[in-house]
Design goal:
The chain is mainly alpha-helical. Helices cover about 80% and strands about 10% of the residues. Helix 2 runs antiparallel to helix 4 and helix 4 packs parallel to helix 6. The longest helix has about 40 residues. The N and C termini lie far apart (about 70 Å).
Length: about 325
C-alpha cells in the first residue's frame, strides 16, 4: 500500500483561497511600491552626493528589508495555498520561517533605529551622555545597522531547530484505490516560540519605547521653558517634537497589532483555512505597507517627491490618452 502525504489545505474553500490571495497580495503590492519609492529616493541621493545621510541610510535599509519581507510573504502565502504538501515539508517550512523571521527582526530593528535617530536629533537634554550620543550618532549608525542584521540572523536561525516539527499523521484509506492519505501536522513548541519570539521582539521594542518616552519628556520640558520665556507655542522645535511623536505613536499602534497577529500566526493555533488565519495574514501584510505610507506622508522630502511622481504619472497618462485620441 502506497502512502501519500497531503495537507489539510486540500479542503480549502475557493472563498478562503481568493481572500488569502487578493487582500494580503494587494497590501504587499502597495507596500512594495511605497518602500520601493523610499529606497529609490534615498538611493538616488546617495548616488548624487556620493554618501548616505544617517536618516537616508536607515530609510534605505528599512525600505529594502520591507520589500524583501513582503515579497517573502507573497511567495510563502502562494506556496501554502497552491503547493501545501511541498510547503509543509519539514525543511521547506523551516526555511520559510527562518527567512520570514529574519526579515521581520531586521525591519523592526531598522524602524527602532530610525525612531532613536529622530529622538537624538530633535530632543533637548543637557546630560553629557546624551550630548555625546548626539555628536556620535551619525558615525555609529552604520555599525548599529549591520549589528542588527547579525542579531536578527542569530535569532531567526533558532526557529530552524527549536520551534517547529512537521509530521504526517491521521492515516485515511482512500476508497477504491491502493493509496493511504495522510495529513501534515505541525507541532509547535510554544515555550521555545514564546521565548525566542519575545526576546527577539522586545529588545528593540524597549529601545523604541524608551526613545518615545524621552521624546515626550523633552517636549514637556520645551513647553515649560517656552512658558517661562513667554514665547509663542508654535516654533520649529515644537513642530519637530510633535511630528516625531506622531510618527512614533503611529508606528507603535501598527506594531502592536502586527505583534499579536504574528505571534498567533507563528503559533499555528488556528486551522489553515480558518477566518483567524486569514485575518492574521491581512494584519501582517498591512503593517509594513501602512508604515511606509506614514513615512512618506510624514517626511517633507518624501512627500514632495511623491507629489511630483504622481504629477508625472498623471501627465504621462494624459499625454498617452491624447495621443491615442488624436491617432484615431
Amino acid at each position: 500500500m502506497i502512502e501519500i502525504c497531503n495537507s489539510s489545505e486540500d479542503e480549502l474553500s475557493m472563498f478562503v483561497i481568493i481572500i488569502s490571495f487578493t487582500v494580503p497580495g494587494m497590501e504587499c503590492i502597495i507596500g512594495i511600491i511605497g518602500n520601493g519609492f523610499i529606497m529609490v529616493i534615498n538611493g538616488a541621493e546617495w548616488v548624487q552626493n556620493k554618501k548616505f545621510s544617517p536618516s537616508g541610510r536607515i530609510l534605505f535599509f528599512l525600505s529594502l528589508s520591507r520589500i524583501a519581507l513582503q515579497s517573502c510573504m507573497m511567495i510563502e502565502n502562494s506556496a501554502a495555498l497552491i503547493f501545501p504538501s511541498f510547503y509543509k515539508e519539514d525543511t521547506v517550512y523551516e526555511i520559510f520561517k527562518v527567512i520570514f523571521m529574519f526579515l521581520t527582526f531586521c525591519s523592526l530593528w531598522f524602524a527602532t533605529w530610525l525612531s532613536i535617530f529622530y529622538f537624538v536629533k530633535i530632543a533637548n537634554f543637557n546630560h553629557p551622555l546624551f550630548l555625546r550620543l548626539k555628536w556620535k550618532i551619525a558615525g555609529l549608525m552604520p555599525w548599529l545597522l549591520w549589528s542588527s542584521v547579525i542579531i536578527s540572523f542569530c535569532y531567526s536561525i533558532l526557529f530552524s531547530q527549536q520551534v517547529y516539527n512537521t509530521s504526517c499523521i491521521h492515516s485515511i484509506p482512500k476508497p477504491f484505490s491502493n493509496f493511504t492519505k495522510k495529513k501534515h501536522k505541525i507541532n509547535t513548541n510554544m515555550i521555545n516560540l514564546a521565548i525566542i519570539y519575545n526576546v527577539g521582539m522586545f529588545i528593540p521594542l524597549i529601545l523604541f519605547m524608551l526613545a518615545a518616552v524621552l521624546l515626550i519628556i523633552s517636549l514637556k520640558k520645551h513647553i515649560l521653558q517656552m512658558e517661562s520665556n513667554t514665547t509663542g507655542y508654535r516654533n520649529p522645535s515644537m513642530e519637530a517634537h510633535i511630528g516625531a511623536i506622531k510618527a512614533i505613536s503611529s508606528f507603535f499602534i501598527l506594531y502592536i497589532f502586527n505583534f499579536i497577529a504574528l505571534l498567533l500566526y507563528m503559533s499555528n493555533i488556528f486551522d489553515d483555512n480558518s477566518f483567524w488565519t486569514v485575518f492574521c495574514k491581512i494584519i501582517m501584510a498591512a503593517y509594513p505597507s501602512g508604515h511606509s505610507v506614514l513615512l512618506i506622508l510624514g517626511n517633507p522630502k518624501l512627500r514632495n517627491n511623491w507629489g511630483r511622481f504622481q504629477h508625472q504619472i498623471c501627465s504621462c497618462c494624459l499625454s498617452s490618452r491624447s495621443w491615442t485620441l488624436s491617432g484615431k
